[in-house]
Every structure is written in C-alpha cells, then in structure tokens.
Amino acid sequence: MSSEPTRPGAKKYVLFDVDGTLVDALANQRRVWRTWAERYGLDADEVHRVALRTRPVETFAVVAPDRDPRECLAALHELEDEDVRTGVYAAFDGAAELLNALPHRAWALVTSNYEHRVRGRFARTGLPVPTVVVDASAVSEGKPSPEPYLLAAQRLGAEPRDCLVVEDAPSGVTSGLRAGMTVWGVNAATPVDGVHRHFRTLRDAVRDIGAFASGPHGTRPRASGSAGLAGT
Q1: Pair 146, 174: CB distance under 8 Å
Q2: Annotated catalytic residue within 17, 135, 168, 208
Q3: How many whole angstroms separate alpha carbon 5 and alpha carbon 163?
Q4: N or C, which end of the chain is more exposed by having fewer CB within 10 Å?
Q5: Is 162 a catalytic residue?
Q6: Which tens digit of pLDDT belongs to each residue from 69-94?
Q7: What is the structure's pLDDT at 121?
Q8: CA 144/CA 179 separation, integer angstroms
C-alpha cells in the first residue's frame, strides 16, 4: 500500500471519474456497443470485451481493421448521443449527497467521454455539474496518461499532491497515480492495483471523501462502513 501524498494544512480537491464511479452506465455502454457491432456484422460480445479495455479507435483496429476508423467513430458517437437522449441512467447511491455537499470549486470531473454527454447524463440523474470538466477533447492523451488529471488540477489551481482521485477502473487509477495524486477506488469487489484506499461502493466512501475535502487537514480519515485499506 502506498503512502498518500498529502500536505498538512493545504486546501484539498477531489477529482471524480464519471462512468462507473458516479453514474452507472455499464448497461448503456454494452447496449451501444452491441448495436454498433450488429451494424457492422460483428460479434457483439467480442466487441464489448475489447472495448472494455481499449479506447474506441484501438477497438476498431482490433475488431474491424478493414473499416474506416473515422466512419466507425462517427457511427459510435451517433449511437452514444442517442443513448444519452433516450437511455435509462442511474446515479450510484451517495453520488448526489456527496457532490452537493462538496465545497464550491473544490472538485472536478475527469472523463474519457465528452462533456455534452456527461451533462446530459447528469441532467437525467439530477447530479450537479462542477465548474471544471476535463473530457476527451481537452487532452491529447487520455487515461492511463496522467494528462487528464493534471489538467483538472491546473484548472482548479491545485497542486497534484493536494488532490484526491476517485476511480473505478485500472486505467483511471494509473492516470491518477502517475499524476502524483492520492487515489481511492470505489464500486469494485476487490481493490484495483495501486489504490491508496478501497471502498466496495461509492456509498461506503461518501463520509471519507467529504472529510478529505472539508475536514481537518493533515489527518487521514478513518475508513467507514465496509470500506477497507487496499491490501487488507
């Protein structure tokens, strides 16, 4: 287990991943990729398996190497935008309570998706949108590069070591760690490698995230509920 890179007395910031962390979009993603795969006559399960671990352009190179990637991406974007308009979304338990309680300009969203889709999903689920949203169009390299989280810190006027990253996926965890930030994992049965703390659900982490952002600085919040330290 790594030590958390915090500074006593410094203002703290929280940087959230979106899909899988605040919004449950797994079924939506599977449906979008299934529709996309069927359009190209591909095996939907195989396409989704590849898509879970690669970015879209990389997915196309694996599952449809003979297709124009620009055409493939345009078709995927069309389906994703339609899903934002018509799909059913749910915020994870505790998300609204947590985001509404955080201090103004003390938090941001860092997503591999696009801001207009995030805003659409947040509008559907009643979640507030912060001042700072770093999306796929804002960076030259996405997660696991540290660029997305470093850019969010810069826009907040924060030092990386004063930031807490809340993530559910290995690529996002790696991104936050490479940025020199504290990283807590949520919504997973077992800890993602490298996280400083692990919570089985977002609800389990709500109290401790709030304490990190607004509680006494220089102290490490105790785990709550069923939460535990990574590696324990």
Answers
A1: no
A2: 17
A3: 9
A4: C
A5: no
A6: 999 999 999 999 999 999 989 999 99
A7: 94
A8: 10
Please say if 19 is a catalytic residue: yes
* Reported pTM: 0.85
C-alpha span between 215 and 224 (Å, rounded): 15
pLDDT on residue 6: 61
The first and second tokens of residue 162, run together, are 């004063």
DSSP labels, 41-82: T--HHHHHHHHTTS-HHHHHHHH-TTS-HHHHHHHHHHHHHH
Residues of the chain falling short of pLDDT 50: 1, 216-232
Spatial distance between the Cα atoms of 102 and 156, rounded to a whole number of angstroms = 14
Tracing tokens 């540290």 back to the chain, one arrives at: 146
Proportion of the chain above pLDDT 90, given as a percent: 81
